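Suppose a colleague, Dr. K., hands you the sequence of a protein chain of 40 amino acids and asks what its three-dimensional shape might be. Before reaching for any lab equipment, you can write down a predicted structure in token form. Begin with the sequence itself:
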Amino acid sequence: MGEKEMESNTLAVRMRGQEDTKILTRTGFISNLQDEIKSS
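The predicted structure, expressed as tokens, is then:
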């Protein structure tokens, strides 16, 4: 495995991590909204 391969691998992992965080934030945001609706 070359140096370049390693580099693009970590980049892909980092991008995937950002996507996961976005999705988690969105679902967390939605469940927060639902909780607020229930309590009002």
